[in-house]
Amino acid sequence: MSTDDEMQPAAPAAPPESAALQERYGRTAGRTFRGRLIAWLTGGFVAVVVTVWVVWAGLDGSSATVATQDTAHTVVDSRTVEVEFDVTIPRGSTARCAVQALSEKFAVVGWKIIDVPASDQATRSFSETVRTSELASTGLIYDCWLT
């Protein structure tokens, strides 16, 4: 017994594409080679750029960093807040820090820039009194930078 599939004639094979059709639709050997070459060159360029950026940004390691930590604040009165904080800078370096006081609505109501002198200790604790324009609800260290 035979099945219906065996009775069906085989489908004719697709005719080979002529060179004129391949050229018309951009499927020539030269064009394919150029496309692959451009893709490889673009990929190589991206790889070089990423590698250079990683080396420049991530592996430099020579830039000194400053770290800060708020430890406490005390609202002394409606015009004064005392801010306590720790600063970590490289030994022998100097820095400046901005200390701020904020209201209940998180508006800056007091601001003070202090100088951190050089020391043999990397981490030191500071306490600064900041005058305010109105009652502060908190005081904190805003930022520090090396000088």
Could you characterize the architecture of this molecule?
- The protein is α+β, with helices and mostly antiparallel strands.
- Helix content is 27%, strand content 37%.
- It contains 3 helices and 6 strands; from the N terminus they run αααββββββ.
- It has a 3-stranded antiparallel sheet, with no helix packed on it. Strands 4-3-6 form a 3-stranded antiparallel sheet, with no helix packed on it.
- A hairpin with a 2-residue loop joins strand 1 (67-77) and strand 2 (80-88).
- The longest helix has 30 residues, at 29-58.
- It is elongated and about 100 Å long.
- The N and C termini lie far apart (96 Å).
- 13% of the residues are buried.
List the helices and strands and how they pair.
Layout: H1 4-7, H2 19-24, H3 29-58, E1 67-77, E2 80-88, E3 95-102, E4 108-116, E5 123-131, E6 138-146
Name the features.
single chain; 147 residues; three-stranded antiparallel beta sheet; 6 strands
| Global Rg | 35 Å
How much beta, percentage-wise? Answer: 35-45%
The ordered string of helix (H) and strand (E) elements is HHHEEEEEE
**Widest β-sheet, arrangement of strands:** 1-2-5
User: Which percent bin holds the helix content?
Assistant: 25-40%
Q: Based on DSSP secondary structure assignment, what is the total number of beta strands?
A: 6
Shape: elongated
Low-confidence blocks of residues: none
How far from one another are the termini? 96 Å
Mean pLDDT: 87
Largest sheet: 3 strands, antiparallel
Q: In a nutshell, what does this entry contain?
A:
This protein is α+β, with helices and mostly antiparallel strands and 147 residues long. The chain is built from three helices and six strands.
